[in-house]
Amino acid sequence: VGRGFSLQQPQAKVAVAVGETLTLRCTTSGIAEPGPVRWLKGWGSGNTTIYDQKRKDLFSHVTRAVNESNTDFTIHIRNVQPEDTGIYYCVKFVKGDTGVDEVFRRGSGTEVFVQETALVPGMVAAAVVLCLLLLLLVLFVALCMYRRKRQGGVGSPCLARTVAMGSFSSVPLRCSAGTPDTPSEVLDTESSHLPSQQSSKEENDIHYADLQPLPPAPRHGRSPGTAPTEYASLRVAAK
């Protein structure tokens, strides 16, 4: 009896995160003398029994994967903690001549590593995607700021400008975006009545229009509801 008995402990190393369930596999085959199967943490005088086939009620956090099986002694250890790190052995005991359980077969041992956190492939992939999205967002914001800065440097017709004219001081020119029925139409209307100049110096003329209406004052000859405007023409000598 016992010559055809074998014990298999296939796991060499197992990594598990804190709080998860650890599974330790052990199966037997053949016939052996009566005696329990136990799981021991460590070997030698300092070992600790974490599961005993005969004393199931003492290990509430350890359960059998297949209850009442005589060949499958795989166990589950719930809520694993850092102190559970170590090497675990599946051991078959038999009754000795003195009535004390003696080691009959021992597994090769399973080294258990308990990690503080576990990075599963899905979490790693999600982190990579999030980093890429953040990078794209940063690049997009930087591009928008660059384009806005560049457009601001070039300027637009409605930005305040300063024109130096000979010895005269700088003259600010302002322009307001025109919409229908706004003073911008008055400028177009009044500028059409200006006397045209056909000389070559016409390009040096600078026309200034204050699009803000002047305070209304009673004047003769103006239709009611028409706000007066201010118009000025400057001429600069060509250089």
UniProtKB/TrEMBL annotation:
Iron-sulfur as UniProt keyword: no
A family per Pfam: V-set
Family annotation (SUPFAM superfamilies): Immunoglobulin
UniProt cross-references to SMART domains, sorted A to Z: IG (SM00409), IGv (SM00406)
Segments traversing the membrane: 123-146
Record carries keyword Glycoprotein: yes
Alphabetic keyword roster: Disulfide bond, Glycoprotein, Immunoglobulin domain, Membrane, Signal, Transmembrane, Transmembrane helix
Name assigned to this protein: SHPS1 phosphatase
